[in-house]
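Journal club side-thread
Mid-discussion, someone asked how the predicted structure for our own chain would compare to the paper's figures. Pasting it here so we can look after the session.
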Amino acid sequence: MLRKWMGMVLPAFLIFFVNATAVFATEETKRVWQDESIYYLIVDRFYNGDLSNDFTVNTKDKLSYHGGDFQGVRQKLDYIQTMGFTTIRLGVIFDQRAYSRSGADTKDFYHPEEHYGTLNEFKQLVKEAHKREIKVMIDFPLTISPKHPWVKDPEKQNRFIIEDGNESNQENNQSVTSPKLNMNDPETAQYVSKVAKWWLQETKIDGYFFSQVDQIPEAFWSGLIKKIKSENKDLYIVGELSEKASVNLRDYKNIGFTSLLVPSTTLKLRESFKTPNHSLTKLVQDVGKIESSYLIKSTDGPSFSRFTNDIVAANQFPGDRWEPSLTYLFTTPGVPMIDYGSEIAITGDDPMMDFRADPDLIEFIEKLGRARNHYLSLTRGDFTLLYENEGMAVYTRSYKNETAFIALNNTSEKQEVLIPTDKLGSKKQLIGLVNNDLIKEQNGNYPLSINGEESEIYIVRDDHGLNMLNVIVIIAIPIVFLILYFYIWKRGKNNG
């Protein structure tokens, strides 16, 4: 009994005192978009929480439903929160004729997909997410099923367009062209606005994700965003550009989009991190631009295969390649978005999530998430590149009186770098948040030693010499531990 108690109490006890010696958190403030980190999941492929809606489920067929549902997402909210994510992006949840990740087979915009659960179950999911201060964003497709009632209605032919290049769905191994909603038609535009407002009013979601926004008239977006933001002025409106879109970020920002996902940026990230020893110069040059804080950063997306697939194809170990890429996503300007399963280096085309996988990468993401949520410099800070040489990058993020110092080794070899004091100031100490490193000034420099394919996030603090708080804690730990030990021993003796 005593041993059991000690096994439960001692770890919690030590964590408490370690946290007591940590650097102070930045001031509490209202969250803004730059503070978010997004976990993107496809409801059907995440977790099966309710077996009663498993009709027509076939996990062996990638084009069939796999059983995931709203109840499953709800049951895994703590899992998502523990990793530090602050926003969940749900793939299309509208009622579909057949399974489609993109929503290409949407038949009813006012009802959730029956394989996922009821509207009330979705409302409960949103409510439980909000209790954990997690925002919920849903994908809003602008395509309909080829068998949607409008397609056969002669009076509704102006509501949609069938053209080459539309998103496609797969049915019976055949490509099915999905009609694209015609946003030049006033009635269609009004319909979409009504649907979007209805979901906001009914479910209290926090945002929408729209794909291929560059293919829709600007006038439609201006009107839609104005109408739906009248329901919630802090609503997140995220747009994804098509691969060949000409990017003018300021134009989209002026229209009212909160953020953009740009495929060309994703491609650069994948190329830079799928193998080691790639220079990060182009990436850090781009990230220094003011518009970069407006972007969502991701190594995955519907236009690409899983990033892990690329890593494996390049004969690399996924964990080693994911760590520097994740560090970059979480510590440079912009909002990181991680696809479900990335935390276990999942492969394949949207398979069912495996919650029994190796937790090493999950633990790494937890550390990144805690750091990002704790220090505003990592979300809002100015970006300054201090050093870059063929994949070894050192940069800072500074916000008010707080500075984060990031050392990212995207090479296969251990790197030794000296950062002169004129870059950070003298008499500083760098406190590591990932591997618990501690670096102090030596001979006018801060010496960094980072293993290959590893990274570290430091918080810069003045070096005042001996830290009295640490001394007090070091003395207090054995005293309090002995008291606790005696209490448990005495209790065990009395019970015996």
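Post-session note: The chain has a mean pLDDT of 87.
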